[in-house]
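Narrative of activities, Objective 1.

The group set out to show that a structural description can be obtained from nothing but a protein's sequence at a throughput compatible with the screening campaign. Below is one input-output pair from the validation batch, recorded exactly as produced.
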Amino acid sequence: MPYTCFDLTHDGAIAHIRLNNPEKRNAMTIAFWNELPEAIAEIDQSGKTRVIVISAEGPHFTAGIDLNAFAALAANLGAGENDTHKKANAGLGFIENVKLMQNAFTAFETCRIPVLCAIQGGCIGGGVDMVSAADMRYCTSDAYFTIYEINIGMTADVGTFPRLLNLLPEGVVRELAFTGRKMQAEEAARFGLVNKIFADEKALLDGVMEIAREIANKAPLAIHGIKQAITYSRDHSTADSLDRIALWNASLLQQSEIMAAMVAKQTKAQGDFAPLTPIKKVGD
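Output recorded for this entry:
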C-alpha cells in the first residue's frame, strides 16, 4: 500500500523504509504513527523479507514528534456530550493514544526480522524512542541524539527509558534525560548506542546495506530465533532464557538448514534456506 510519511522499497530480501519529509526534518506526524506499524506488519507478513533498513532524506534523521499536530490532537482528547465529561476522560484518551504510539515502535521488536537504523544529523526526541527499539543503529559522524522532551517540559513516554537502559549506563541515561543535551556520534559509539560511525550519508547507506545483505544471506529461521532469544533474554532470567532457547531449537532446528548453511559457506553461494512462513489470519 502507498504511504505518506515514508517511501517503502525492496531490494531483493531487504525492505527499505525512508522517511521522506526533510522540509519538516522528518517530524513524526499523526499519520506516521499509524503508517509505520502497518508497514512493518506488511513487510513481516509476506515472509519474503529478511532485513528492514530505516533511513531518512535530508540533513536530519528526524526532529521527533510533530508538536503542532499533537497540540491540536490534545485539545480534543475528551469524549462526551459536555465539557465536564470530556475533561473527566481526557486522561484516558491520552493514555490510549500514547499506547498506540508506543506500539508503533514495539513493532520493531515483535517483527521476525532484524531492523537496522541508518541515522544522519539530528535524532531528536521521538527519534531516540524509535531507534532504541531497532536491533542495530549506525550513524554518520555529524549525527547526534537528544532526549529533547525535558526542553519542552515533558517526560519522554514512547519507549526511550525502558529501552535506553538496556543500551546505555543508567547514569548516562539520567544525564541525557535531565539535561536534554546532545550526545554526539563519537560518544554514542563509545557507550555502544551505535554499532559504527560512517563519514557521510552515502557511506552510511552503503555500509548499512552491505550489513543488511550479509544478514539476508543467512538462514531466516535462525535469524528469527536469534532475535527472539536476545530480546527474551534481555527481559528474563538466565534460567528462563535457557529454557526458551532449548524449546525453540527443539521445535525449529532442522538438519536441512544446517546442511544448507554449510553448503553456502563452502560454495560461497546463496543458501537454500526455508523462508519464513507468511503470517495469515485465522482461517486463511
